Amino acid sequence: RPLTQEEIAHRRELAKRRHAEKLAANQGNELSEKPPGENSSEVTGNTGDTKGEEQQLTGQVEIMTSKAVKQEADNKESFIAFARVFSGIVQRGQKIFVLGPKYDPAESLHKLSSQCSATNDLPLVPHMTCCTLENLYLLMGRELEDLEEVPAGNVLGIGGLQDFVLKSATLSTSPACPPFTPLNFEATPIVRVAVEPKHPSDMPQLVRGMKLLNQADPCVQVLIQETGEHVLVTAGEVHLQRCLDDLKERFAKVQISVSAPIIPFRETITRPPKVDMVNEEIGKQQKVAVIHQTKEDQNKIPEGIQVDSDGLVTISTPNKQATLSVRAMPLPEEVTRLLEANSDLIRTMEQLNTSLNEDKKTHEINQKTLDRIKEFKQKLEQNLQGRKWRNAVDQIWSFGPRKCGPNILLHNFEGYTRSVWQCLGNAVKEVSKYKDFDNSIVSGFQLATLSGPMCEEPLMGVCFTVEKWEMNKVGEMQSTSSQDSGECDTIEHQQNEDTTLTSSCTEVCSVNEHQESSQSVPKSPEKMSKHKGEVLLADCYGPFSGQLIATMKEACRYALQAKPQRLMAAMYTCEIMATAEVLGRVYAVLSKREGRVLQEEMKEGTDVFIIKAVLPVAESFGFADEIRKRTSGLASPQLVFSHWEIISSDPFWVPTTEEEYLHFGEKADSENQARKYMNAVRKRKGLYVEEKIVEHAEKQRTLSRNK
């Protein structure tokens, strides 16, 4: 039965009395060792997926009388896991399995015996550990009550899990239990800052503090970039400030320096526009100016690179042994969204294809995963329809960047059949002349999509098609003739003495130290039996492969520059609640910050308007403060990351037609939003920025000496 108010009050008094007795007993021997979890002045909670908050215990005033006790209490900050019992009874001291969100019992149970428990010595299983439940607590508002056991259906706090749980986990006495899915949050981390300590000697404390912050906050991401910077990725300006305050005052307790917020952008291409900047149709009368502009653009392209009128870029490697032709096309928006939503599935496909290509004996592919891959392929075929996308899905060579991004590489030349759909069972062993160097082309594509030509930001929604790949056989034979002789000697040596296989492998590896000996030795007799003119030896880690990577990257960049380039900005959806009298001021602040109102409706029965708008993340800093100041606190915005949106203006635009000259002037010095963003990113990255130091130099100082 539920407790009455009198019983609840009586129990509260008993709990307070017990707590006061404990404090009195501890004060008598204040320098002696204190039992865990009873006398700490602060207890932080890793609330499963909610942020730990300070719990001030009632007897804090008495503790603060002694400095020694205060220091000890400050150091004893611990995480309390916030949990709910779904079945069974949780008991203190119980040994239990900790299952991470990615734990899969189907893959792990065959490694464990049928009667195994958390008390046994267990083999290493991914995403699974064992631990002992140290303390169980009843969360009574500001207080924590120790418990011996908790039955099903109750919410409790568990101490001592900080070393086993990062953000969330499932606890079970059986390893066959499927884990709960991690909690999904509406807010996506998008704003990042680089953090470093003011005194370099404090670096270990900062690293430890960032680790604790990562555990305490479910929405923050902590990572180390390629440059070595420690980066915090947060949901927005207010969340960022809260994380930095926590890091300084609670977790790291050191002074830190914080960079300006790093706003991510994406680069893409669009179809050629049909109207110019003054909304006039691009017709014959303006063609003269446009032709002049294209001639100027062509002059920028270096020698040895051919660019067709339809954007096909042809480029050769520095040693003239290979020629590539690459074309760039914009992907439909539906395909880009589909690729973004299925990035985890694409990563799984890439891992399966890699194991198939390396002839590893992998476990049987999960039928559920195969069905998801087939469904993903069907959706791609539905969205990629039309004459220019014919057979495009079957020709997909790779995704990028990092082999799982929203860009596609297609192969459209004869003699090559490998694709990303090998894991569906239609794997064909590649035997063509391209098989040793196709990884170089894919690597060049990955590098090109990771940093675009505008401001070294990742690409999004771009499809690159390799339409021609020619290799010069004679040149390759000359470059690898020394390797030929070394491999012949190896084969003869292997036929004479079977016991010296290791030395023969060493000879092959001495010519090409990265090449796998187990693959090169059996292939060699087949190659030697062929005609000398058809020999294309695998120099897949030599200088030629490096030249192919660099050439492919350059080809992708020039193919991208041959099309109309655009920046993509990260966008917040902004929901503002405001009364009718401040509506105009809200719109003024939104329009000043490049915001766009989508919807405005009145809440029934009140005089409050709900405004839905989109706002660029780059313009959102100080937005909440400004809107509160302008409306005297009557409007409050709520910002959540929504999507990526193309900025319509061309960052490289210059007036070309007569009407544009009349409207914008010869200098066209009105603010170009895309160029402003692009130059800001280039300055931050230390890239060249094309800026005029002196502008409007009409006023000149007289050179006469002042007397």
Automatic annotation (TrEMBL):
Recorded superkingdom: Eukaryota
Gene3D superfamilies: 3.30.230.10, 3.30.70.240, Elongation Factor G (Translational Gtpase), domain 3, Translation factors
InterPro entries associated with the record: EFG_II, EFG_III/V, EFG_V-like, EFL1, Ribosomal_Su5_D2-typ_SF, Ribsml_uS5_D2-typ_fold_subgr, Transl_B-barrel_sf
GO biological process, one term: cytosolic ribosome assembly
This protein's UniProt keywords: Acetylation, Elongation factor, GTP-binding, Hydrolase, Nucleotide-binding, Protein biosynthesis, Ribosome biogenesis
Single GO MF annotation: ribosome binding
SMART domains noted in UniProt: EFG_C
Biased composition (Polar residues): 38-55
Annotated ranges, domain Elongation factor EFG: 566-655
Signal peptide (residue range): none
GO cellular component terms given for this protein: cytosol; ribonucleoprotein complex
Region of interest called Disordered, as start-end residue ranges on this chain: 1-55
The reaction(s) this protein catalyses: GTP + H2O = GDP + phosphate + H(+)
PANTHER family: ELONGATION FACTOR-LIKE GTPASE 1, TRANSLATION ELONGATION FACTOR-RELATED
Described purpose of this protein according to its UniProt entry: GTPase involved in the biogenesis of the 60S ribosomal subunit and translational activation of ribosomes. Together with SBDS, triggers the GTP-dependent release of EIF6 from 60S pre-ribosomes in the cytoplasm, thereby activating ribosomes for translation competence by allowing 80S ribosome assembly and facilitating EIF6 recycling to the nucleus, where it is required for 60S rRNA processing and nuclear export.
Listed name of the protein: Elongation factor-like GTPase 1
Species of provenance: Calonectris borealis
